[in-house]
């Protein structure tokens, strides 16, 4: 069969392409809109399979998925969050502290379940393809798995929120995670009433989306070329 | 308007949902199938916009995108790769060295362009929401941008390959990247003749996809619950 035919078998028509972009553009870091409804195992199985199909350095597949459903344990994790938030507020600029304290930054207890995605740093110790120069690549592979999970969840109507305000050493003790394994993401996962039209941190005045064209550089850092591309980007969007 | 109506405006029908999964499952780390064809700026603008809509800790948006088109510079990057590969081969287990050397692990010169995605670690210095406990979160946000780019590219029929076998200090010098900025991913990007049906490292016998159900844990690390979910996963797949 000629190469072109094989490519056509895999190609995305405009509807399918738009669906992928819609998942990317309407994905949200969900904190506020979880509803009290269980998540089907069939849906959860598909989301985990999406995560498992992430790229990984040297095909290492360093991830594990710890499902946390127990209410008491989730309240313990929430206590870790509350303590960490109190400490973090203190390092904010003075004029941001009040706004910071008013933000809802997690849905640990009210989501259907929590998922801790971990990275087993020892999984490819003998043959570290792609990791001898950049040993953090296994962490990055695990983040790719998180993003796959997040986008698939959006397409399933499932909200996901990443809680990064946690003392990870305390979380490791709580979930009995061994030394050679790193918790990368602690996610709140569940059905939602809605997906917000814009990121919460934009709506609440914490920050604005940066103009994309200002983030593009040409040939080297701060290189000023790519004028045509930048004009296209500025025309296309309120980015 | 009732909440349910709003949710419906955003919902994915089965065709749209399947398109998202297809992008996830058929994405490949492309090394071998780039064709000699330029990439339209209109397509590149969409891919960069997808990257820019990644989640970021504290809405930090720490990424920059350095486009590298110049042939001479790309040959210099390829020289960095070749030197790094030689050094990496030496740390492989003896019985894997020959296979390692036979693998094609980059398409730096033959792809349409290269893209270095960087992380500016100073961008939210004053108000590090979500970073005071886990300062590496900005690196992870940047990886989410890479994965968005990669999946959007798949839907556009554009191949992406992540080159991690590089001396990053040398790459920083070559691209004049300042100290406070970290190169996260060096990507080869371009039209392809085909997307391989399976990952190259599987086809070439470097590794196999791990059975997903063995990577799932319940309530704590190595916790043995979730039997129903694991059975569903085993039934659904050759995973």
Protein model, in words:
2 copies of one chain form a homodimer. With 239 residues, the first copy, chain A, is an alpha+beta fold. Helix content of chain A is 44%, strand content 14%. A 4-stranded antiparallel sheet of chain A has the order 1-2-4-3, with helices on both faces. In chain A, helix 3 runs antiparallel to helix 6 (137-156) and helix 4 runs antiparallel to helix 5. The longest helix of chain A is centred in the middle third of the chain and has 21 residues, at 71-91. Chain A is globular, with a radius of gyration of 20 Å. The termini of chain A are far apart. The interface between A and B is large, with 126 and 126 residues. Strand 1 of chain A pairs parallel with strand 5 (216-218) of chain B.
Task: List strands and helices in order, with pairings.
Two copies of one chain form a homodimer.
Chain A: H1 3-10, H2 14-26, H3 41-52, E1 63-68, H4 71-91, H5 94-102, E2 113-120, H6 137-156, E3 158-162, H7 168-174, E4 181-191, H8 200-203, E5 216-218, H9 227-236
Descriptive tags:
homodimer; 239 residues; alpha+beta; four-stranded antiparallel β-sheet; 9 helices; 5 strands; 44% helix; 14% strand; disordered N terminus
Number of beta strands of chain A = 5
Described by its quaternary structure, the protein is: homodimer
Major sheet of chain A: 4 strands, antiparallel
Query: Largest beta sheet of chain A: what is the strand line-up?
Result: 1-2-4-3
Alpha-beta classification of chain A: alpha+beta
Approximate shape of chain A: globular
- Percentage of residues assigned to helices of chain A: 40-55%
Main interface by residue count: A-B, 126 and 126 residues
| Terminal CA distance of chain A | 42 Å
Mean pLDDT of chain A: 93
Order of helices and strands of chain A: HHHEHHEHEHEHEH
Strand content of chain A: 5-15%
Write down the Rg of chain A. 20 Å
Helical region count of chain A?
9
């Amino acid at each position: 069969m000629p190469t072109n035919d094989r490519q056509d078998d895999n190609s995305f028509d405009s509807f399918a392409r738009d669906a992928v972009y819609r998942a990317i553009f309407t994905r949200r870091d969900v904190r506020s809109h979880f509803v009290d409804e269980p998540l089907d195992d069939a849906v959860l199985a598909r989301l985990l399979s999406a995560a498992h199909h992430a790229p990984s350095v040297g095909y290492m597949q360093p991830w594990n998925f710890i499902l946390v459903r127990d209410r008491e344990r989730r309240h313990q994790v929430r206590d870790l969050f509350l303590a960490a938030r109190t400490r973090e507020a203190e390092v904010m600029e003075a004029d941001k502290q009040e706004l910071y304290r008013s933000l809802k930054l997690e849905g640990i207890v009210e989501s259907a379940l929590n998922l801790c995605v971990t990275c087993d740093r020892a999984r490819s110790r003998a043959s570290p393809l792609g990791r001898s120069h950049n040993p953090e690549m296994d962490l990055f592979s695990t983040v790719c798995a998180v993003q796959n999970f997040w986008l698939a969840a959006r397409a399933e109507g499932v909200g996901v929120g990443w809680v990064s305000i946690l003392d990870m050493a305390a979380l490791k003790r709580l979930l009995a995670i061994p030394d050679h394994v790193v918790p990368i993401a602690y996610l709140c996962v569940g059905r939602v009433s809605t997906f917000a039209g814009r990121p919460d941190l934009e709506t609440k005045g914490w920050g604005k989306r940066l103009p994309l064209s200002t983030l593009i550089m040409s040939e080297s850092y701060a290189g000023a070329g790519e004028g045509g591309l930048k004009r296209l980007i500025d025309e296309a969007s309120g980015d």
